[in-house]
Specification:
This protein has 102 residues and is mainly α. It has a domain of 50 residues. Helix 3 crosses helix 4. The radius of gyration is 29 Å and the shape is elongated.
């Protein structure tokens, strides 16, 4: 695995990262909220929704937890028609006096 022996033993001695029950509950609540809103819920709105449910949480904590969970907002692109089609519009005048029939 191309890891030095000292790095391996340092990794073994490192204490395991323990996720608290509060963090686990928060993560389990954030994912469905995010998916329910079609992945367009940012940290500010997520914070407001969680506060409505009674969870006291700050925006930066929400942002950090969203980052750890991989919840990335996908911004929707608005549809914009680039061509105006008016079938009832008149045909342009032949200003160059070109003959288009042969």
């Amino acid at each position: 695995m191309k890891v030095s022996t000292s790095a391996f033993y340092a990794w073994i001695k490192r204490p395991a990262h323990i996720i608290s029950a509060n963090e686990r509950h928060l993560s389990r609540r954030m994912k469905p909220l995010f998916e329910k809103r079609r992945e367009s819920l940012g940290s500010r709105k997520m914070m407001k929704k969680l506060r409505e449910e009674g969870v006291q949480i700050g925006r930066y904590r929400v942002r950090k937890r969203m980052s750890k969970l991989g919840l990335v907002v996908t911004q929707r692109v608005a549809y914009k028609a680039t061509t105006v089609r008016k079938h009832s519009a008149a045909v342009a005048d032949n200003l160059l006096n070109r003959c288009f029939t042969k």
